[in-house]
Every structure is written in C-alpha cells, then in structure tokens.
Write a structure and sequence with these properties.
The complex is a heterodimer of chains A (about 290) and B (about 350). Chain A has about 290 residues and is mostly helical. Chain A has twelve helices and two strands. Chain A has a single domain, classed as MetI-like fold, CATH 1.10.3720.10. In chain A, β1 and β2 form a beta hairpin. The model of chain A has no long low-confidence stretch (mean pLDDT about 85). The chains are: A mainly alpha (about 290), B alpha+beta (about 350).
C-alpha cells in the first residue's frame, strides 16, 4: 500500500544515504567499536601498559557494590523520570486539547522547555534550588523543610528527577496532544450519550486509546533518563552527594575521564549499549504488534 | 418512546446564524427524515436534539421535558454516527454493554439485553470480536445494536449509511425500516440521499440554508413541492424548471416559445412571469409534439433519460420508460402532461 520509491540508478541511493552513514560511522560505530575493544583490556592511568584481561572488567563490575548501587539508582531514576514526565504531560495535553481559543499560544509555550539544552536546564534548577541563594530553597526553608540537596542524597535525587522530567514534559505533551487529536470526536460524543461523564470517558475511552502512545513514550523517556540526562546531573549534582545520583552514564564518564580507568569505563558503556539494544527491540516489537486495539 | 417538539429552534456560531428557526412536532413512534444538501444545517439540528450542540434560541422537548439544558446522557436518546463511533478497544459485546454498565444495569440484565439486540441484528457470531475485525455492514449493525440495547425514547441517525457501498446501503436501509416497524421508537434520521429519505420517512423535512423548506409525507413532498428548491432536490433527474409568462387566463408561454394550455393560478394576470415546473417522467414522447433536439441519452435499462433542447434554446429532461436508442442530434416530439404541472412564484420560488 505504501508507495515505494525506486531508483533506476544503482549508485544514487548509496550516494544519498552516504552522509548519514558517514556520520554514524564516525560518531557511533568507531567509538562503540573502540569501547568494545578497550573493555577487554586493562590499562594504567598513563596509557603506558596495556594488558588483555578478557571478561575480567565485566566480572569485576558485576561484583562491584558501587556499580550495582549505581545500577539500582539508575533504574529508580529512569522510572521516576518517565512517570513524572508522562503524567503532567498527559494532563497538560488533555487541557490543551480542550482549549478552543489561543490554542497555538498554549502549545508553543508548552513546547519551549524542550528547546532548552539539558545542561542549561540543570543550571536553571541549580539557581532556583541552590541551598545558599536559590529562591525555591528559601521558600522550602520558610516552609520548615531542611533543604540542602548538596548533603541530602534523597533531595539531590528528587531535584535531578524534576529537572530531567521538566524538560521531557514538552516532548511527551506533543505526542499526547497528537494522540488525543487522532481520537475521533464522535467516539467521545458516543460515550457521552452512553452516559459516561468526563472522568469516566477519560479512563475508559481516551486512556486505552492512547496506550500505544503512552507505551512508546514510556520507553523513549526511560532511554532519555538513562542516557540523555548526563548534562542535568553534571550541572546539578556531579553524581553526588556520595554517589546518590551517580547514574550509569555519569559513572561511565566519572570512571573513564576522571578516574582514568578506561577498561572499566568501556565495559560499562558496552553494558549500556546492550541495554539500549534490548529497550529498542522491546519497543519495536511492541509498537508494531502488541499495543494495538 | 416519546414525541419530540421543536419550537423556533435557532443556532448560531458567534454572529453567524446557521439554523433560522425550525418549528416541528414529531409524533410518538414517527420516523422523520431530515434531508438536504451539505451545509443546510440538518446534522446540526440533529446534534442539538442529542445535546452535542447548544441550542441558541427556542426549545426542543422530548416527551414532556424541555431538554435544552440537559446533558446528552439525560435526554433518553441514542445516536448512530456516520463513522459508527465504535469503541475500537472493546469487543462487540462490550461496545453494546458500555452504556448499560454505566447506567448500573445488573450483569444478567445486560447480558439479556445485548443478547436480544444481537439476535435482532444477527450479530451473535461476532460478539467477541473487535470492531476492526468486522465488515462495514457489521460495524453499522453494532452501532445500531448499541443504540437499541438501551431502549431509548428517541433514535437519532446521522447519515448512518453513507460509508457503505451501494448494495449494502440498500440492505441496511431495509433493515432500518424493519427495525423501526418492530421497535416503534421515534426516530430522526439525517441524510443527503433522497432515496433513503423517500423510502424510510413517515414524514420528510427538506432543509435548505438553515430553514425547513417543507415538512410532509414523502408522497406529498414529491407531488406538491412547496418551493422550487424542494422541487429540484427531491426527484432524480431533477424537475425541469422553465421560466414562463401567463399569456391569457388559460395559456402559458414557456421560454423558448412553447405554448401550453393550462388554467393560470388565481391572481396571475396576463403578463405575469412565473416558474413552470414539470418532472421528467411527466413529459412523454409524441410524434406530433413540440420538437426537441437530443443532446444526450442515458439508457438506464428500465428507463431512458433524454437530455435535449427545445427549439427556442430551453433545456429539457425527459424520462421515457423502457430502452430507447437515440443519437445525439436526433429530433423527437414531446408532450407535457398538463395535469402534473407545478407553478412557482418567479421571485420567491414559492408554490402557487
């Protein structure tokens, strides 16, 4: 049913995709290949001596309590980011979908946070929540909360979750809004005539019909939290305090570029790579088959 | 079941009026078809009954209750949508049971009602299927099933057959007619298809530009169209409308010079201009009739439709029974059945 574009020229298609391939090669395949290579070597901090160690780097990681803790933190963090980015986005999308006048203005404003770079978003939140000068920190203290995320790991975690989720809300909002607008109006009207009030319509008709969108976004948000929030962490907590926000990606950076343990860092990135592969496969499988009505 | 009463019902979007005051009484159990071209306000009127559009002025009453300010769910109506509006994530059974569940019917009652509706609509084998696994006709039936399980006071149909192919449309039309006979529920049915309108309606409402131009039984609307709009909208091919002038109390001259001997309507003095209407089926071919040059002949099998031009240049459509082979440029004689002539005011288009 889809029209396929066909080329008579044998060479042209390759020429057309070559820039993309080149970029992927230089920025993904070569570094990823190097990481795989490094992950089976042990190297001293000055790069003078390199020893082949097989899977020792991986075995060491799997028995390292710091790594396992970071793993646990990452899972909690990414689920928390996904949930806190999905629910407000859905609420905003439902509200924006109901707006008749000035809808474009709302939409534009709601999309803006997505254009903010992660590091900048992190800095914004740092300014607001800085225990010494942040305005929100002052309010919190006035409300009797002992706010100091630089000392309290739970507070630090909450802050990076908020900062990371805030940025992603815009993205989710766009998808939810598109999903909502794809639901035929007459379905909602039919449900209204059938006797369902607004809440009931939302939970029995709209939400199930949005489930493919929701699932897709859940996976995208997890991947985002896993990999793309490095900037937020780096700007806000530097992985601290005491490793409380040291998610896997940040640990890769920390161990490799600060600790100069290239072998372990590479092994960690290979593990991350595998996680992405699994998540992507799951997503494609489901999006194409399962979550359809 | 209930009667429905419209009084001076108006609708406007901002300053843009779309319904200009509709008055109509629908009797209990009556099948009313609202027909008109797109944009005439027929769907809007129906949606105002359903409660999906606010009523700008006037009142709509279902039974004894004025429903202007009632929510759709409190109006005791059910509606069949053009795109069926089936819930895609629910089975056929769940689709039909949804409204009953919300209204707190008991489980056994729900099952009994759905079962009965499924029997009536021959949906039994499909109860466990999802809508996307059904054909267009089956989906249509599920949509009707969802309407009848609740046993509402009024059924509303919004062009329910326009997404079906021609053959299914005829089948479903007959089925809707049968259902109405069995259930006897007051029905309001919106369509742009005049065959559906003519065959289904107890009474027809012909709408144009937000006004009800004529309300009456199909036969009356066909035989005594109230305006030139109704005259051309109902009937296919459309009625011939020819500018004419009263020459003498019993003589008309049509554009193109054809004279017809016919008593003039009251008050129409010699020299009055009016519109002369004759349906294609009320013009016959006759060897000694006025000459008509054939421009196109459509042979439909049962009938032949002849499109031609009178000598004065006036176009005329003639419907001849049977199969008639004519060539472009052929000249035939025509005879107008003067007992079937419709006369309309030239300016207002009202029937005289």
């Amino acid at each position: 049913m889809h029209k396929r574009v066909t080329f008579d020229n044998k060479l042209l298609p390759y020429l057309l995709v070559s820039p993309q391939i080149l970029v992927t090669l230089v920025f993904f395949f070569i570094p990823a290949g190097e990481a795989v290579v490094y992950s089976v070597f042990s190297q001293d901090a000055f790069g003078i001596e390199i020893n082949f160690v097989g899977l020792d780097n991986f075995l060491f990681l799997l028995n390292d309590p710091h790594y396992l803790r970071s793993f646990g933190i990452t899972v909690f963090y990414s689920v928390a980011v996904a949930v806190s980015a999905l629910i407000p986005a859905l609420i905003l999308a439902v509200l924006a979908d109901g707006v008749a006048k000035g809808a474009t203005v709302y939409k534009t404003l709601l999309i803006w946070p997505y254009a903010v770079a992660p590091a900048v978003a992190g800095v914004l939140w740092v300014f607001m929540f800085n225990p010494a000068v942040g305005i929100v920190a002052q309010w919190l203290r006035a409300a009797g909360i002992d706010w100091n995320y630089k000392l309290d790991g739970d507070q630090a975690m909450a802050l990076v979750i908020f900062a990371a989720a805030w940025k992603q809300i815009s993205y989710n909002f766009l998808f939810f809004l598109a999903g909502l607008q794809a639901i035929p109006k007459s379905l909602i009207e039919a449900a209204a005539i059938d006797g369902a009030g607004p809440m009931r319509r939302f939970f029995t008709i709209i939400l199930p019909l949005l489930s493919p969108t929701t699932f897709f976004l859940a996976v995208v948000n997890m991947v985002y939290a896993f990999f793309d929030t490095f900037g937020v962490i780096h700007a806000v907590t530097l992985g601290g305090p005491a490793g409380a926000t040291n998610i896997l990606v940040y640990k890769v950076f920390n161990d490799g570029f600060i600790g100069l343990d290239l072998g372990s860092s590479s092994a960690q990135s290979v593990i991350l790579l595998l996680i992405v592969v699994v998540l992507t496969v799951v997503q494609f499988r489901y999006v194409e088959r399962k979550v359809q009505y | 079941m209930a009667a429905v009463a419209f009084s001076a019902v108006r609708k406007s979007y901002g300053n843009n009026p779309v319904i200009h005051g509709v008055d109509m009484q629908i009797a209990d159990g009556e099948f009313i078809v609202i027909v008109g071209p797109s944009g005439c306000g027929k769907s809007t009127l129906l949606r105002m009954v359903a409660g999906l559009e606010a009523i700008s002025a006037g009142t709509i009453a279902i039974g004894e209750r004025v429903v202007n300010n009632l929510e759709p769910k409190d109006r005791d109506i059910a509606m069949v949508f053009q795109n069926y509006a089936l819930y895609p994530h629910m089975s056929v059974f769940e689709n039909m049971a949804y409204g009953l569940k919300i209204r707190g019917f008991s489980k056994s009652d729900i099952e009994a009602r759905v079962k009965r509706a499924a029997d009536i609509l021959q949906l039994d084998p499909y109860l466990a299927r999802r809508p996307r696994e059904l054909s267009g006709g089956q989906r249509q039936r599920v949509a009707m099933g969802r309407a009848i399980v609740r046993q509402p006071a009024v059924f509303l149909f919004d062009e329910p057959l326009s997404n079906l192919d021609a053959k299914l449309r005829v089948q479903m039309r007959i089925e809707i007619k049968r259902l109405h006979r069995e259930l006897g529920v007051t029905s309001i049915y919106v369509t742009h298809d005049q065959i559906e309108a003519m065959t289904l309606a107890d009474r027809l409402v012909v709408m144009n530009g937000g006004r009800a131009e004529q309300i009456g039984p199909p036969k009356e609307v066909y035989e005594r169209p109230a305006t030139t709009f109704v005259a051309t909208f109902i009937g296919s091919p459309a009625m011939n409308l020819i500018p004419a002038r009263v020459q003498a109390p019993d003589l008309f001259e049509l554009a193109g010079g054809l004279s017809v001997r016919l008593p003039a309507p009251r008050g129409a003095a010699a020299g009055t201009d009016l519109t002369f209407g004759i349906r294609p089926e009320h013009v016959a071919l006759a060897d000694d009739g006025a000459p008509l040059t054939v421009e196109l002949a459509e042979e439909l099998g049962a009938d032949t439709i002849v499109y031609g031009r009178l000598d004065g240049g006036q176009e005329l459509v003639v419907r001849v029974p049977g199969y008639l082979e004519l060539n472009i440029g052929d000249r035939v004689g025509i005879q107008i059945d003067t007992s079937k002539v419709h006369l309309f005011d030239k300016a207002s288009g009202q029937r005289l």
